[in-house]
Amino acid sequence: MANPSQFGFQDASSPIMEELVEFHDHALMVALAICSLVLYLLSLMLMEKLSSNTVDAQEVELIWTILPAIVLILLALPSLQILYMMDEIDEPDLTLKAIGHQWYWSYEYTDFKDLAFDSYMIPTTELPSGHFRLLEVDHRVVVPMESPIRVIVTAGDVLHSWAVPTLGVKTDAIPGRLNQTSFITTRPGIFYGQCSEICGANHSYMPIVVESTPLTHFESWSSLLSSSS
């Protein structure tokens, strides 16, 4: 959960998000080094006169042509690795189907019989004390911790987007099309997200809440919910 005036990302709760944060820091340090070098060269050019050898030096032109290419390769390789990791889905332990509606989410646990529910945002007037306004829902998505989860995302009316920043997940929900993503929660907790597509007037009022619990708690929750439905 983000804090007011927070500088940086939320704490990563999945391996993919940890890789994304590390890549962000890596790219930021590369950009800082480039900016420092350019600032140094600009100040040097302003303070000293350039000789004809400096202006027409082919060695300098060769260096400032090859060096940016090397920098781009250093940025591209880890980026491509993360992209392939985000698309990789290996034998998930649980499959969750998320369906976007105006303006709420429906969830189906396809590995269980009759385990499905709608998730609405709790209005501010009915919000319990200590809960987050505009982010809390009446039914949370409960998943087992440290288990590969596959999420199949679609929409029933207009474009939506199922996004949970701390898990590194953001997948568009498109009517008539199934998109899929996956994640693994590395710790127990409650992770908040929102629809990241401008889907209508109440676009900002369809939050996503994922609760990561130990496997035994998840089994008890799923049994209780299946019996009540």
Automatic annotation (TrEMBL):
Location, primary (coarse class): mitochondrion
Membrane topology term: Multi-pass membrane protein
Catalysed conversion reaction: 4 Fe(II)-[cytochrome c] + O2 + 8 H(+)(in) = 4 Fe(III)-[cytochrome c] + 2 H2O + 4 H(+)(out)
Alphabetical keyword list: Copper, Electron transport, Magnesium, Membrane, Metal-binding, Mitochondrion, Mitochondrion inner membrane, Respiratory chain, Translocase, Transmembrane, Transmembrane helix, Transport
Cofactor note: Binds a copper A center.
Cytochrome oxidase subunit II transmembrane region profile domain boundaries: 1-90
Cytoplasm listed as a keyword: no
Protein name: Cytochrome c oxidase subunit 2
Organism: Rhea americana
